[in-house]
Amino acid sequence: MRALVYHGPGRKSWEDVPEPEIVADGDAVVRVDAVTICGTDLHILKGDVPAVTDGRILGHEAVGTVEAVGSGVRTVAPGDQVLVSCITACGTCRFCRESRYGQCLGGGGWILGHKIDGTQAEYVRVPFADTSVHPLPSGVPAQDVLMLADILPTGYEVGVLNGAVRPGDVVAVVGAGPIGLAAIMGARLFSPSHVVAIDLADSRLEAAKQFGADATVNNSRQDALAAVRDMTGGLGADVAIEAVGVPEAFELTVALARPGGRIANIGVHGAPAALHLEEQWIRDITITTGLVDTFSTPTLLRLVAGHQLDAGRFVTHHFALEEFPRAYEVFADAGRTGALKVVLTR
């Protein structure tokens, strides 16, 4: 089969590799019908995730058709169409029992495209299939469901729920890429009074308006901190969400929060970021971090199936599987191309 293989920082190749096989009783082999690229894949290619080694097939999001299952799999069968979640869950360890699947101790967590071969291929082996794939709801396009493999649960859980967004809150989202837009969309479910999107690219700020932002700030031309304080009578945001993964964005996000505010970091950071405790210790702030657990995926699937969330809005570009190199170019140059999520299909 063909797959997108990582060969060290800055190097990847669409090449021939062996097809995956059932290794454990709980495995499923899934034919990949639709797959996407994540910002985390770009962090890997920058060298920010050293656990990803030469020869690893990238990718952790897919919709596909079950080809084969191990003898212990009970919930899916060959021929079933499924969502492959970015998080794999053993289902029995302490953290899985607490719905913290991202911290799985039993061999799961974020492993696809990280510790084992991932989804940017014609076929993928998914361990713990009973707890790590979801049947597709009827009548929902595969590309819409694909957005629930990672970005929507990540924005919702690590941004909105960790940030404890409540009715009437002012929410500031730093970064209007796909994850920031997912946080904006998820925040809207809780009736905030105001959502402010902050980014350096006008194209992404325009997208933020379509996803529910009431106001936008281009931080290359405007002082985002002054703008948010002007909107809030000098206080700052009730909830500030970091969705970029660079030190400057984190430090701005902390500054944006009001005294007693909540700061939710979603971004994948590859370099140290300063937290000025000499300024912040007195402000009663709460800072959360997190890897998505995907415990919310069933809920989000119901919301998408019920037309309460327009997941397909994220998709801006389509490619065939063999066009992975070009798809990466378009996705990585989002400021010029306007790419939010690219979808590659058979």
UniProtKB/TrEMBL annotation:
SMART domains with a match to the protein in the record: PKS_ER
Pfam families named among the record's database cross-references: ADH_N, ADH_zinc_N
Keywords in alphabetical order: Metal-binding, Oxidoreductase, Zinc
InterPro entries attached to this UniProt entry: ADH-like_C, ADH-like_N, ADH_Zn_CS, ER, GroES-like_sf, NAD(P)-bd_dom_sf
The keyword Zinc belongs to this UniProt entry's keyword annotation: yes
Alphabetized GO MF terms: oxidoreductase activity; zinc ion binding
UniProt key word Zinc: yes
Top class in the EC scheme: oxidoreductase
Cofactors required: Zn(2+)
Protein EC: 1.1.1.-
Domain Enoyl reductase (ER): 10-344
Xref: PROSITE patterns: ADH_ZINC
Domain of life: Bacteria
PANTHER family from the UniProt entry: NADP-DEPENDENT ISOPROPANOL DEHYDROGENASE, ZINC-TYPE ALCOHOL DEHYDROGENASE-LIKE
Recorded family membership: Belongs to the zinc-containing alcohol dehydrogenase family.
Protein's recorded name: Alcohol dehydrogenase
Native species: Actinomadura luteofluorescens
Classification lineage: Bacteria, Bacillati, Actinomycetota, Actinomycetes, Streptosporangiales
